[in-house]
């Protein structure tokens, strides 16, 4: 009999695996609707939707393995990273979806959110002021005009599967929509910036690496407090706080 594996779980949603089926439990029906809609529109391989019965979405497992995980080693070859870059570029060049995505927040809204979060990180004693100030300065490079793209919005390295050097699919599309393409690249290389050149070999080099690094700092600053409050450890080796420390 297949065992139930808890893939990820927190107060907002949970993902379970039973054999070759993933069960996503999410009380936010709009978020599930957005995920299914994005998978149908995306020009890259996505999991097959087996059935939906709110608040549960059942998806078929993808073949292959991920390139790695945040805080863990990357097992992918340079060719696999390049293949990932090519798949991500195909997504970004696709016709725009109707929905704004997580990567599409306005500069005004992001600036306000970042300033508020930086203040809370320091006043709450989670991070030292010099670390926050330095990364807040680095994050400024992300605040520039950008052309909307079809973005995944939560393109963690653990969300893209490969079989050898071939991309077999991308999972977790609930944050997808119109947004800044470089946000996806920053999320994908978070904690694995040593593979950025390999990724861009497939994606294309018409991007600014400094903006990618800026998004990495920004994303990490916004994530630390949420992760701590939901039982995750951003202080683990290779995770968000290490990304912030690398800017010092």
TrEMBL record:
Q: What organism is recorded for this protein?
A: Kitasatospora setae (strain ATCC 33774 / DSM 43861 / JCM 3304 / KCC A-0304 / NBRC 14216 / KM-6054)
Q: What is the name attached to this protein's record?
A: Aminoglycoside phosphotransferase domain-containing protein
Q: Which residues form the Aminoglycoside phosphotransferase domain?
A: 17-213
- Entry-linked Gene3D superfamilies: 3.90.1200.10
Check the record and name the PANTHER family matching this protein.
AMINOGLYCOSIDE PHOSPHOTRANSFERASE DOMAIN-CONTAINING PROTEIN-RELATED, AMINOGLYCOSIDE PHOSPHOTRANSFERASE-RELATED-RELATED
A Pfam family for this UniProt protein? APH
Q: Which domain of life is it from?
A: Bacteria
């Amino acid at each position: 009999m297949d065992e139930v594996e808890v893939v990820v779980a927190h107060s907002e949603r949970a993902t379970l695996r039973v054999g070759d089926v993933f069960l996503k439990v999410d009380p936010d029906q709009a978020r599930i609707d957005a995920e299914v809609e994005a998978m149908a529109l995306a020009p890259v391989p996505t999991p097959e939707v087996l059935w939906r019965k709110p608040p549960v979405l059942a998806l078929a497992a993808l073949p292959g393995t991920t390139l790695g995980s945040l805080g863990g080693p990357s097992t992918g070859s340079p060719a696999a990273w390049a293949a990932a870059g090519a798949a991500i570029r195909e997504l970004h060049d696709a016709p725009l979806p109707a929905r704004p995505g997580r990567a599409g927040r306005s500069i005004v809204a992001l600036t306000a959110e970042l300033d508020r979060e930086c203040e809370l990180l320091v006043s709450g004693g989670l991070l030292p002021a010099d670390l926050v100030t330095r990364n807040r300065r680095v994050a400024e490079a992300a605040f520039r005009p950008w052309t909307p793209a079809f973005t995944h919005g939560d393109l963690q390295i653990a969300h893209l599967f490969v079989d050898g050097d071939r991309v077999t699919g991308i999972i977790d599309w609930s944050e997808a929509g119109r947004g800044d393409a470089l946000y996806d690249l920053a999320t994908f290389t978070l904690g694995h910036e040593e593979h950025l050149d390999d990724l861009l070999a497939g994606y294309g080099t018409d991007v600014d690496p400094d903006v990618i690094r800026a998004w990495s700092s920004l994303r990490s600053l916004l994530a630390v407090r949420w992760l701590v409050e939901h039982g995750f450890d951003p202080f683990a080796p290779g995770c968000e706080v290490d990304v912030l420390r690398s800017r010092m």
